[in-house]
Write a structure and sequence with these properties.
Pfam families: adh_short (PF00106). The protein is an alpha/beta fold and 241 residues long. Helix content is 35%, strand content 14%. The protein has one domain: 3-Layer(aba) Sandwich (Rossmann fold). Helix 1 runs parallel beside helix 2 and helix 3 runs parallel beside helix 4. Bound molecules: NADP nicotinamide-adenine-dinucleotide phosphate (NAP). The site of NADP nicotinamide-adenine-dinucleotide phosphate has 29 residues, from helix 1.
Amino acid sequence: MSSLAPSRLSGRTALVTGSSRGVGQLVAEALARQGARVFVHGRTETACAATLARVVAASAGRADPVVVAANLAVPAEVEALADRVEALGGVDILYNNAAIMHPWRERIENHTQADWESSFQVNVFALVRLCARFVPAMRKRGWGRVVNVTSGIDKTPQLAGYGASKWAVDKFTDDLAAELKDTGVIVSRLDPGWLRTDMGGKQAPNDPETVLPGALVPVLLADDAPGGQFFRAQELRGANV
Ligand SMILES: NC(=O)c1ccc[n+]([C@@H]2O[C@H](COP(=O)([O-])OP(=O)(O)OC[C@H]3O[C@@H](n4cnc5c(N)ncnc54)[C@H](OP(=O)(O)O)[C@@H]3O)[C@@H](O)[C@H]2O)c1
């Protein structure tokens, strides 16, 4: 038993997709520090080992984290991921963070069908399916938080497939928020800002750690907060969560 006082997410369970590294790893650790039981996710269990160790330390014995591996590029693996998490008790918090970015394409003629298909499968279709699988139980319980990670990417035609996938995430989040009005399930968007992760690259202006505390704000919203809000982690660096 931990001697730590129960914190704001005690008794809550969270799935953070793409938490083997980068933003997801920091979010998983921060949720564990707030008392949540965390499902750590990546494509392989091996990839999740470092996050698991950090989450175990952050949990301080209050909740047992679990690793769940699935390649979100494969629709059957998305369903199997949801099956496994449901079998282990389901989630109150769905943090849809995993995403891929296709290679830089200088001109439109360089874009490939695969760029667009893979961007939409991982970044949009998997995210929609995970909402479809987990939101009904949240709704039944009258409490849930869904955070869909988006991007501030703009006027970057070289990454148009990625940019369009995030636009689709924004649109879907708006629509889902309308459906979930007054249900206790609050869905939000979070733009982490341009960060020095594997995806953001070394030239990014911000430390990955600057995603916190802002990334927790959409999870810790009051129960009467509106859905569909757009949070920008870099504008929330001083947030008191
Ligand atoms: N970094 C930035 O500057 C930036 C800016 C704006 C928005 N974002 C958004 O922030 C989120 C996190 O980005 P990040 O920078 O932390 O990315 P990252 O460092 O590249 O990490 C990506 C995460 O997603 C997982 N992932 C990738 N492809 C997957 C697949 N097919 N199936 C399952 N999991 C997969 C990875 O798991 P594995 O380890 O198993 O590969 C990893 O955990 C993304 O939604 C991204 O679009 C990032």
